[in-house]
Design goal:
By secondary structure, the chain is an alpha+beta fold. It contains eight helices and 17 strands. The structure holds flavin-adenine dinucleotide.
Length: 378
């Protein structure tokens, strides 16, 4: 279910409960604190300022969280080498259905199929949005058209800079996710990079874990610091692991690619990929397939469903399928997903995501160079 429908779905289900109260267009501006305990929020609404009192306030207001900031919770910032310029272009029936991604000359473009439009992400080195805007809209459109030739006949839909939203990427994590009367979850507790497309999964998992742990203490009015600590304890490990993988990807793949350098997969990631495949495939055969020791071409120029490194295809002039699969974070477990295709042509790196409606989240590309895990015995 797409995110926008999911939010409406949740709101709709919530309305079945007599005590559910959803206030749209209400912006939390501050916390109400009494004797060291958070007892609610102050909010700005179209009807004026209001106060909402609560036994427990949950900050889930995203990576620029006001709640976390007003609570004075300390965070560790891990940095991100990129920001994203986010815009839509129409999608025609004749267009491919596949997610598109392309990296070239320090620029990167990803297009996500949203049925009637393409959600486009033009990935830029951190802090360079103003520089790109100074270059002018024509130059920007031209660059988009070069990276994604499919868009060339509709670039005038980017009428002005208002159509292009800057999404700043952050990776950070609170040291403590709570204070008396307050809990932060989702990006408010740990801002996720878009890499791997798992931030929403983690946020939903935080919410589910928090609900399961909190329901009884809330009903009996016994929410203590230990209860809130239990939520952090339950969710911190998967968050740490996922952020660590994202940071490795950022520093070794996205960052160098945006500087026009050859991305390099850290040894850890190659190892992780094989370990994950082994842990979740269950059979030796499936592990070998996941590690790229089997070959299944699925159409011209495509290599699908594989992870790993193919020494036989290491000719830099030819097609190389050096690919690390998308890692999806599902139910607290990492699993390796199928159906990605990746084509390397000279200095140009292109990948295509051959998702056919399965439970695939996103792809992560690795340009593996001389890696040769496939030469290891199966
Ligand atoms: C460019 C980019 C692309 C991404 N792409 C993906 C992807 O494809 N898949 C994926 O899984 N993750 C992706 N992520 C990560 C993902 O967006 C987040 O991890 C996820 O949305 C976190 O969910 P959340 O509910 O904690 O916060 P959010 O989704 O950010 O929701 C926070 C909500 O709080 C509201 N809010 C903010 N401030 C206030 C306030 N003061 N008062 C009241 N309400 C407030 C906001 O309007 C918003 O509705 C991406 C991140 C970036 C930066």
């Amino acid at each position: 279910m797409p995110q926008w429908d999911f939010l409406n779905f949740i709101a709709d289900r919530g309305r079945r409960f007599r005590t559910f109260d959803l206030r749209m267009r209400a912006e939390a501006t501050g916390l109400i604190e009494e004797q060291g305990q958070i007892v609610g929020v102050r909010a700005k609404t179209p009807e004026g300022d209001i106060e909402i009192r609560a036994d427990l306030t949950v900050g889930c207001d995203g990576r620029h969280s006001t709640v976390r900031e007003r609570a004075g919770l300390e965070s560790d910032d891990y940095g991100a080498p990129m920001d994203v310029m986010w815009f839509r272009l129409s999608r025609k029936p004749s267009d491919s259905e596949e997610t598109f991604g392309h990296i070239e000359g320090g620029r990167m473009m990803v297009m996500l199929n949203r049925n009637d439009y393409w959600q486009c992400a033009y990935v830029i080195p951190k802090g360079t949005a103003d520089e790109i805007k100074c270059g002018g809209l024509d130059e920007f459109r031209q660059s988009v058209g070069q990276l994604a030739p499919l868009t060339q006949d509709r670039l005038d839909e980017i009428e002005n800079w208002d159509k292009v939203k800057l999404l700043t990427v952050a990776v950070d994590r609170l040291r403590r996710w709570y204070r008396p009367g307050l809990l932060c979850i989702g990006d408010a507790a740990h801002a996720m990079s878009p890499i791997g497309g798992v931030g929403i999964n983690l946020a939903v998992q935080d919410a589910v874990a928090a609900a399961n742990i909190l329901v009884q203490p809330l009903l009996s009015g016994t929410v203590t610091l230990a209860t809130l600590q239990a939520v952090q304890k339950r969710r911190e490990f998967p968050t740490r692991v996922t952020q660590r993988v994202q940071i490795l990807m950022q520093n070794n793949i996205i960052g160098p690619a945006l500087q026009g350098k050859r991305p390099k997969a850290p040894f850890f990631m190659k190892l992780l990929a094989v370990a994950v495949a082994a842990a979740h495939s269950g059979t030796r055969d499936r592990t070998r397939r996941a590690a790229g020791t089997h070959s299944h071409a699925s159409g011209t120029g495509k290599q699908a469903g594989r992870l790993g490194f193919h020494p036989g295809r290491s000719d830099p002039g030819g097609l190389e399928a050096h690919f690390i699969k998308g890692l999806a974070h599902k139910a607290g477990r990492l699993c390796v997903l199928d159906k990605f295709a990746h084509v390397r042509q000279g200095s140009r790196l292109a990948f295509r995501h051959a998702d056919r409606g399965r439970r695939i989240e996103k792809s992560i590309v690795e340009n593996a160079g001389a890696g040769d895990l496939a030469s290891q015995p199966g």
